[in-house]
Amino acid sequence: MVTFYQIVLDALHKLAGVSPLPAQPTFAVPCVDAIRKSPRRREFPRGRLFQAEDGAWRVRLAGNQGSGILSSMSAANCFIVLSEDRDDVAAGDLVEVQVMTGLI
């Protein structure tokens, strides 16, 4: 599902004649959870973007991130974009978030 969202969706838009392709902007928010990350690899953990009681936006993991676990995908409303040069994320660190749009 991550591959579909990151690669296939743009290809389908292009084949359908959509121009320009819809942007998939990212923005930085604090991450509530610590995240372990493999080195030298871009990762897209499924996340849940929410507004905290203080009004600030934050993100948390949407559940177990195993590739065969669909419950975290259905609970997610964003991807946490971790670049190849990014190390593990500590709770409270800023992370890039890509909101899921265009699928409904």
Describe the structure.
This protein has 104 residues and is an alpha+beta fold. It has a single domain (24-99), classed as MoeA, C-terminal, domain IV (Beta-clip), CATH 2.40.340. 18% of the residues lie in helices and 25% in strands. The protein has two helices and five strands. The protein has helices spanning 2-15, 71-75, and strands at residues 26-30, 46-51, 57-61, 78-81, 94-99. It has a five-stranded antiparallel sheet with strand order 1-5-4-2-3. The chain starts with a helix and ends in a 5-residue tail after the last strand.
Instruction: Give the CATH level 1 class.
Output: Mainly Beta
Structural class: alpha+beta
Distance between the termini: 14 Å
Give me the number of helical elements. Answer: 2
The mean pLDDT is 91
* Beta-strand share of residues: 25-35%
Total tally of structural domains? 1
Q: How many DSSP E strands?
A: 5
Spatial ordering of strands, largest sheet: 1-5-4-2-3
Second-tier CATH architecture: Beta Barrel
What is the percent of helical residues?
10-25%
CATH superfamily: MoeA, C-terminal, domain IV
Could you spell the SSE succession in H and E letters? HEEEHEE
Rg from alpha-carbon coordinates = 14 Å
Low-pLDDT stretches? none
Q: The CATH topology, please?
A: Beta-clip
- Please give the largest β-sheet: 5 strands, antiparallel
